[in-house]
């Protein structure tokens, strides 16, 4: 957290691409809501896109979380930490919490920019709060996965390849940027098992006019379970790392 405070440029750099998606694509595809089959036509495309951009930001940032562990491994910091009385769980939770706080700040900024650009979220403060919670849970899930990959592979190139292989398909196999009513049926079937889609659905439904709270809490529950499972599995990756040392 001290590093983040001393170098806030990391937050700004992470916002460049999401802001481009939000403002450029939000205007470029504004007429998409008029297409037959677009099931979220009640609001403008900017209102539709904002929850997706928030989750994309959380996904892309957390997918690179393991680079911190790789730096610690290269510098010998990881081995010193593992020979200390420090809890393995605490080490994992610390990096996950850092990523979650960073995502929280970026998500608030994205929502503010969307409102300044003309978006109106009828779900109010509660809807924004659910959106931030979904983004945090998504971040916890994928930052834990990234940390586990870093511990198991110890290779920057491998982490980059796996991150690229997972983030882009997960983004496009969800309703982050396009209504699934306009997508092939198989995409919707895959999206049902996609954590990114769970986060987007919970956020978008809570920020809309008529919120189905059962749907929101079910998807948040799935995200919370995924974050818990990935946190436990990534913590166990320390054992494999020690055996390979």
TrEMBL record:
It is a multi-pass membrane protein. It is found in: Cell membrane; Membrane. The chain crosses the membrane at residues 7-28, 48-70, 91-115, 121-145, 157-178, 216-233. The keyword Membrane applies. Signal peptide: none annotated. Belongs to the ABC-2 integral membrane protein family. This is Transport permease protein. It comes from Streptomyces spirodelae.
């Amino acid at each position: 957290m001290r590093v983040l405070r001393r170098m806030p440029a990391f937050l700004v750099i992470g916002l460049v691409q999401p802001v481009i998606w939000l403002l450029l694509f939000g205007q470029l595809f504004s007429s998409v809501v008029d297409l037959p089959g677009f099931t979220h036509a009640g609001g403008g495309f900017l209102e539709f896109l904002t929850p997706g951009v928030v989750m994309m930001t959380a996904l892309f940032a957390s997918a690179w979380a393991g680079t911190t562990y790789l730096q610690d491994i290269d510098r010998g910091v990881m081995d010193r930490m593992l020979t200390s009385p420090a809890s393995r769980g605490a080490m994992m939770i610390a990096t996950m919490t850092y990523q979650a706080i960073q995502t929280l700040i970026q998500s608030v900024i994205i929502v503010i920019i969307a409102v300044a650009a003309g978006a109106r979220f009828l779900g109010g403060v509660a809807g924004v709060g659910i959106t931030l919670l979904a983004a945090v849970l998504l971040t916890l899930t994928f930052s834990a996965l990234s940390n586990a990959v870093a511990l198991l592979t110890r290779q920057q190139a491998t982490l980059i390849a796996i991150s690229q292989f997972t983030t882009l398909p997960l983004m496009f196999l969800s309703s982050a940027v396009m209504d699934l009513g306009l997508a092939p049926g198989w995409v919707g079937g895959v999206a049902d098992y996609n954590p990114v889609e769970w986060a987007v659905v919970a956020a978008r439904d809570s920020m809309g006019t008529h919120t189905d709270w059962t749907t929101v809490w079910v998807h948040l529950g799935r995200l919370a379970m995924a974050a818990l499972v990935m946190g436990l599995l990534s913590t166990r990756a320390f054992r494999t790392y020690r055996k390979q040392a």
